[in-house]
Amino acid sequence: MATWFQLLPAVGVVLAVLVLPGAAVALAAGARARILVAAAPLLSVLVLVLAAMGAEAVGVPWGLLPLGALTLVLVGVAVLVRPVVNGRDPSCGTGFRPRWDGPLWVAPAAVAVVALVHARLLTGAMGGPEHISQSYDGAFHLNLLEIIASTGRASVLHAGYSAVDAPGFYPAAWHDIASLPVLWGLASAPAATNAMVIVVTSVLWPTSMAVLAGSVARSHVAAAVGALASVSFMQMPNLLTWFGVLYPNLLATALLPLVLALLVMAFGRSDPGQRGMAVVGALLGLVTLGVSHPNVFFAALVLALPLFVQETVRVGVRWGRTPRECVLGALTGALCVSTAWVALDQATFLVPALARLRTSDRFWAATQTPLEALRDLVWGSAGDTADLAGVGAWVLAPLLLVGAVTALRDVRTLWVPLAHLFAGLLYVVGSSDSTPFKSYMVGLWYGDTKRLAALLGVTEVLLAALGVLGLARLVEHLLRRRLAELTWLKVPMRALPAALGVLVMVAGLTGAAVERSYALVRASWAWGYTDELGHGLLDEDELTLLRRLPTHVGPGETVLNNPWDGSVLAPTFAHRQVLFPHVVVDGDAEGKKLALSLAKAAQDPAICTVLDRRRIHFALDFGPAYFWGPYAGPDFPGEKALAELEASGGTEVVDEQGQARLLRLTVCDSVGATRVP
């Protein structure tokens, strides 16, 4: 695939499966436009995951058939439960009340503008549709996608580090979606992955922020500003695009604003017929976050906690008929939420995997002081670019403050700055603490400051949107008398929030932090890039050799490899299995032992027996250039053993390209083992 234009069919498939299944179910249940837009992607991802699980359970290959069948079944179920969910509201599915301020078209227009701008910048940074993220987890995601496409098995209950049937849960929603263009022959695994990145960051993310901002402010203009501001901060979507690479986290974080928006709609003071729909949508949305990536499920609860407190207190106040009863009701509501939160907090310790995360001492050390972390929050640069404040930050940082003040002036939006404060607290602890308290607080996010910083991307965009509205109202208030005299100013004043939103987008995109984030995407997608850590995973010589691998290695064979170089990507580019398909090698104890003892094969026939049983007859040697350079590659346990085997004449070169070589293991020929050429 040579051009981005050729990727359009894959992009179309990804976009369709992210919208259509969920939209069909939501429409059947009677969702109106706003709830429909918020619920469709969440329900689509959930339907995809359930369909993949069901397909594997009944032995049907993953693809259009199980997805379409389950969608039809759920549409029928939605029709049956529609009267229950909507309280038999006769107006369900019609109208747009309660009304939002501003024209309806501005938000879709803003999303379209942002999608085009970000997609252009992103594809320019990626370099080409077949380029890959040369990152720690990049090979795992690509190889898992290839395994799903080749086996037709995509259940989240069995996707593990090395094979689709590895035990245990893995949030493979991203891979379930990305595998469809591969299964239908529209794209390779790398190209389908890039199509997913484009759709999630260019379409889903700005749409999600538009829905959230519009729901909070009850304004189409606010929705437009939310979309425009969604690319103004480096925390989302670019941080999760280059770091990790954390594709499941990227998808889940892009869906997170939709869950918050549905919760806001569920607590709305009008439109009771749709309130039940919003509640159900929010609950199912939380499940979707859980299967997309569990840490974002917990993030949603953290960000929604102030909203729960705000609304339960409000209900308690409305319940009282005297000041004393109002206070008692408010305290009761706050106590109920607090009790539920403490119960949930303690419940995580009943799940062994979560308990290990929250009590572990193996997380990254502190990278800065608490004051430096607070500085990052003020400048909106948490995660990577504290030293790159620049002109953009001088526009955005004050805007966040204005947004917080604006939110605090309205009882409906008090929760927004508190949510930002909670996300900021997690970031400060994660980046500046090295005590057991860090594990307790941020262990569910692996103590990873990048994942925590991405959560700030949600609250920053929301505060920026509220800040723009607050500034526009302030200007309108200051010019109120002039507006009465000069009627021609009324039209420009109505356009002021949108104009300020464009300014926010431009300020962010031209700021040093966001520019650097695109540069980091460019660096991590470049073939054989080098940085302060060393060499990228794969260069063009290694890619060329991998593409020739099927001419020498049969489909059923496994190739010995060092997972810290480009050979780890043989499943993706050559459709051939390797001994270690991920830099984490602990999952294959026998393979690790085999790699360590390879040099002794001439003296130990048992080693040759294992090689034959596992059909390992070839090895890939990609030279001294390793991912993360001297910090990792040479320490791989099998590297020294393979070098010793080569030096002793136990291999022969079958193919080579530059420093990349394919070797046949000849050591067992001398001990009489049966070989399969």
Cα(first) to Cα(last) distance is: 32 Å
Q: Compute the gyration radius: what is it?
A: 27 Å
Tally the beta strands: 7
| Helix residue percentage | 55-70%
In percent, how much strand structure appears in the residues? under 5%
Instruction: Categorize the overall geometry.
Output: elongated
Draw up the topology in text.
Layout: H1 8-29, H2 33-58, H3 64-85, H4 106-126, H5 138-151, H6 173-183, H7 189-217, H8 220-229, H9 238-242, H10 247-266, H11 272-292, H12 294-319, H13 323-347, H14 352-359, H15 370-379, H16 390-408, H17 415-432, H18 436-442, H19 449-478, H20 480-485, H21 490-509, H22 512-524, E1 530-531, E2 534-535, H23 540-548, E3 558-560, H24 570-574, E4 577-578, H25 589-597, H26 605-613, E5 616-621, H27 637-647, E6 651-657, E7 660-665
Parallel strand pairs: 3-4, 3-5
Antiparallel strand pairs: 1-2, 5-7, 6-7
Helix pairs in contact: 1-2, 1-3, 1-6, 1-7, 2-3, 2-10, 2-11, 4-7, 4-8, 4-22, 5-6, 6-7, 7-8, 7-10, 7-19, 8-19, 8-21, 10-11, 10-12, 10-19, 11-12, 12-13, 12-17, 15-17, 16-19, 16-21, 17-18, 17-19, 19-21, 25-27
Describe this structure in words.
- With about 675 residues, the protein is mainly alpha-helical.
- It folds into two domains: about 5-520, no CATH class; about 535-670, Rossmann fold.
- Helix content is about 65%, strand content about 5%.
- The protein contains 27 helices and seven strands.
- It has a five-stranded mixed beta sheet.
- Helix 1 (about 10-30) crosses helix 6, helix 1 (about 10-30) packs across helix 7 and helix 2 (about 35-60) crosses helix 10.
- The longest helix has 30 residues, at about 450-480.
- The chain is elongated, with a radius of gyration of 27 Å.
- It starts with 7 loop residues before the first helix and ends in a 12-residue tail after the last strand.
